Amino acid sequence: IMRFIGSILGSIIGAIATYYLGVTPITLAITVASIIIICAILQLQEAYRIAALSGAVVMLSWAVHPELVT
Fold it and tell me: 3-state DSSP call for residue 32?
């Protein structure tokens, strides 16, 4: 269940970051680092990898298909 929570958390944070900040290498790195920090604060040690991966996938998929944002 922790991996599922991590997937949801990472996807939501990735979507919010992409919407407001766009997709650049710097925003991708900042978003992934933020997701890891948030997981550490919430004590989701089992979920931080899948959360960071989910956030990166959301950001990169929007970079490849920007029409999905609207």
Answer: helix
